[in-house]
Amino acid sequence: MSPNNGSCFVSSAVTLPAKGDNVANRPNQKLRLLFLLKTLMEKTDSAHGLTTQQIIEELAYHDLEAERKAIYRDLQTLRDFGLNIDQRGGKEWALVSRPLDLQELIMLVDAVQSSPFLTDKLTDHLIGKLQSLASLGERELMHKRVDVPSRVKMQNSDALLNIDLIQQAMREKRKIRFRYFHYDAAKQKALNHDGKTYELTPVRLIYSDELYYMIGFRDKWANAGSGHQPFTPYRVDRMLDVAVSEESATKDPRIAGYVLEDHVSPSFGVYAADKTTVVLELDDRAMNPLIDKFGLDAVVFENQDGRLLATVKAPLSPQFFGWLLQLSTFIKIVQPQSAIDTYLDYLDSTRALYQEDR
């Protein structure tokens, strides 16, 4: 393997140190060790190695001279430090293992590429950092990774800064201030409540449905007679002008006793209603979707008539009902009657939207 420009060649017959000259004390010795490590990281891996001569040529490209014995000492130093440097076939040296192997890096790149929370710019930046952890040969393989379908990416570049500020407010036990927006029919940002600034206590920062949400406690809804749930989710990427408030966070026993699973469904998102125990009757063809949605904790059994039933905890929400609709005739609610009635009301209201135009 040639040096970076492909034309520089230095003979291994370099000048030997004079008697009494301590190589370890030479100014370039520490720098040489660093460039040796950089060369091994970039140009070797479990499938590619460099001979001692090629290493000398690579170092010479950086104006660093070294004799073979010095290279051997440096390689041993890196080994003593704990790096897994192997001599392949008695000729080539290679850094054969890293903190993240190629398949792990590819998985992380795919996750970054497919995350809708990241902007295009940040996506490219993070992928570049991940690729820098691989050798040049492995980077070529990373370009041939599993195809990820095109995703709608985040538009708010301040989302990560918002996360930092929310975490700061939680650490300092202060409230958070922000404005909240939605998109209007012209695809423009429209501020909620005429641009009013929200000020509330941040309770949790969670990642759900590939987006970050802040669970906030609103003081004005804290009273039982308010008719509202004081714990409210806010999408972090929809928050503007975020700042840590000077006001201390609200102290309320409900905040201290907040249990995430009681308010957020891992299957149906942060806007899901309180969970209800529901019995479903299903066809065998609905088993895979059932396990995908509720996991192996779902209780599945056959009744005396041989019908397949499943007991799950689910919110009686549009998200749950939409999932039932996807499975059409393969699944239905059989208990409790209140869940059946709520689902039928949902279907009636949906049907009414189309009846108006007939």
Describe the 3D structure.
The chain has 358 residues and is α+β, with helices and mostly antiparallel strands. It folds into 4 domains: 73 residues, Arc Repressor Mutant, subunit A (Orthogonal Bundle); 31 residues; 105 residues; 81 residues, 2-Layer Sandwich (Alpha-Beta Plaits), CATH 3.30.70. It has 12 helices and 13 strands. The strands form 3 sheets. Strands 4, 5, 6, 7, 8 and 9 form a 6-stranded antiparallel sheet that branches. The chain is elongated, with a radius of gyration of 30 Å. The N terminus is likely disordered.
Instruction: Give the biggest sheet.
Output: 6 strands, antiparallel
Number of domains: 4
Give the H and E element order: HEHHEEHHHHEEEEEEHHEHEEHEH
Q: What's the helix count? A: 12
Give the beta-strand count.
Answer: 13
Unreliable stretches, pLDDT < 50, 5 or more residues? 1-25
What general outline do the C-alpha atoms trace? elongated
Provide the gyration radius in Å: 30 Å
The percentage helix is: 25-40%
The average pLDDT value, as a whole number, equals: 82
Q: Strand content of the residues, in percent?
A: 15-25%
